[in-house]
């Protein structure tokens, strides 16, 4: 009894998470044995490149009847394509795609039902050039998209990131139909445009690409099938393009959630600020209070938060007696600016993992006259920090900056150049 209840609950859960889009091909109706029979192998060898079914194709030949269990699902997949322009080139391309699948069955000695994702990638190839180089010249790049469609419909193939660049929208049109794909895109587009995205904007195009990829991963073009679980699977799928496009999944998820089909997306990892470590508690409290109430943008607030937290770690290491922001004096500020001038990469930071190889480099390179000034300005702008004097700038930094300006000026010829060089040395000596 318990087992029956568990089985029923499992079936209900599967039905609840399964897409409502009906798959166009019932794979259970086919003979999916992985091995080729001797009869099938002999028939494929006898047909050779006649598997392309060009002029002279005679379906009553015994060879075609011998491979009917391979040919029938491929022809059914072709019939199930919902977008295939009725032109001679496209008709030839889709027929050649079926022929290439049969040809590879002969070469591998197995039916395509036994193919893994690696086998499909080997047939489709990582790019157009590799594909065309692997076959005779009369097989062109227009065949490749139809191979991807057959792999998707019959082989459960979704490793699109392994077959190079191609128009995913066209693939979605082929397997789902143009109308349902564009209807879903239009609904999400309307939401994005309400937030300020424009159809001609490059970011909008990336959202559209991500949305189509979600359809392909979820095996459904319907917006109501883009549930929270489905979007999480898309987020974890390697098929989703990396880099900037992967970041656009967050925006697409927000739009789908706004339309009522999913929960809001999880907060991006880069937007989650870690707890401050190694900072005196009063200092950390001041930093967090400022960060939570500042009207600056999140990116700027995060940068300033890191700077002031670094100052707190420096205080804990060099001046442990200073724990309150009000104890920050002009002398403390001067010592902090001097320390910044000598500080190396990764020093007094919370997560130094990616800075180990650069530890010997100074944190402030040739522009050191500006970064300490910026850091001090940040500290002066915080509530409770006891600095009310003009900004400090080390004399060494000022002199260094002036010497760089002198060196960058065009040098005059002759005695005038020597005279000006001597004058510059005199100015440097007076500063020191």
Tag the structure with descriptive keywords:
57% helix, single chain, 19 helices, mainly alpha, disordered C terminus, 432 residues
Biggest sheet statistics: none
Count of β-strands: 0
Q: From the alpha carbons, calculate the radius of gyration and give it in angstroms.
A: 33 Å
Which residues form runs of ≥5 with pLDDT under 50? Answer: 1-16, 353-360, 364-373, 388-422, 424-432
Helical coverage, percent range: 55-70%
Strand content: under 5%
> Structural class of the secondary structure composition?
mainly alpha
Mean pLDDT: 78
Number of helices: 19
Can you lay out the helices and strands and say which pair or pack?
Elements (H helix, E strand, L loop, with lengths): L1 H16 L20 H10 L14 H5 L1 H13 L7 H21 L8 H8 L3 H6 L10 H12 L12 H9 L1 H17 L7 H17 L9 H9 L7 H15 L22 H13 L4 H21 L11 H13 L28 H10 L14 H14 L5 H18 L1
Helix pairs in contact: 4-8, 5-8, 6-8, 9-10, 10-11, 11-12, 11-13, 14-15, 16-17
């Amino acid at each position: 009894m318990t087992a029956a209840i568990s089985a029923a609950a499992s079936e209900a859960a599967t039905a609840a998470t399964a897409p409502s889009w009906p798959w166009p091909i019932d794979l259970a109706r086919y003979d999916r044995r992985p091995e080729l029979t001797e009869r099938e192998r002999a028939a494929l060898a006898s047909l050779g490149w006649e598997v392309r079914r060009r002029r002279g194709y005679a379906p009553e030949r015994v060879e075609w009847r011998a491979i009917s269990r391979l040919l029938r699902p491929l022809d059914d997949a072709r019939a199930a394509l919902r977008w295939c322009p009725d032109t001679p080139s496209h008709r030839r391309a889709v027929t050649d795609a079926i022929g290439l699948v049969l040809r590879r069955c002969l070469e591998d000695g197995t039916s395509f039902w036994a193919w893994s994702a690696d086998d499909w990638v080997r047939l489709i190839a990582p790019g157009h050039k590799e594909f065309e180089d692997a076959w005779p010249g009369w097989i062109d790049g227009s065949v490749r998209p139809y191979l991807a469609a057959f792999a998707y419909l019959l082989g459960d193939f979704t490793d699109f990131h392994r077959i190079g660049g191609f128009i995913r929208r066209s693939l979605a049109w082929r397997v789902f139909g143009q109308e349902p794909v564009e209807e879903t895109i239009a609904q999400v587009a309307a939401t994005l445009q309400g937030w300020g995205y424009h159809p001609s904007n490059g970011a909008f195009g990336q959202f559209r690409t991500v949305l189509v990829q979600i359809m392909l991963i979820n095996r459904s073009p319907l917006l109501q099938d883009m549930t929270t679980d489905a979007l999480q699977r898309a987020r974890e799928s390697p098929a989703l393009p990396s880099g900037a496009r992967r970041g656009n999944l967050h925006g697409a998820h927000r739009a789908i959630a706004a339309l009522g089909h999913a929960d809001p997306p999880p907060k991006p990892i880069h937007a989650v600020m870690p707890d401050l470590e190694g900072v005196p508690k009063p200092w950390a409290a001041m930093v967090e209070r400022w960060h939570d109430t500042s009207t600056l943008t999140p990116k700027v607030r995060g940068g300033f938060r890191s700077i002031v937290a670094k100052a707190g770690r420096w205080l804990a290491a060099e001046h442990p007696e200073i724990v309150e922001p009000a104890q920050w004096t002009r002398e403390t500020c001067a010592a902090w600016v001097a320390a910044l001038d000598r500080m190396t990469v990764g020093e007094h930071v919370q997560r130094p993992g990616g800075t180990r190889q650069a530890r010997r480099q100074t944190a402030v390179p040739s522009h050191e006259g500006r970064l300490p000034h910026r850091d001090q300005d940040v500290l002066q702008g915080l509530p409770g920090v006891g600095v009310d004097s003009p900004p400090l700038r080390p004399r060494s930094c000022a002199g260094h900056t002036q010497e760089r300006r002198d060196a960058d000026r065009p040098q005059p010829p002759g005695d005038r150049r020597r005279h000006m060089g001597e004058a510059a040395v005199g100015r440097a000596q007076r500063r020191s």
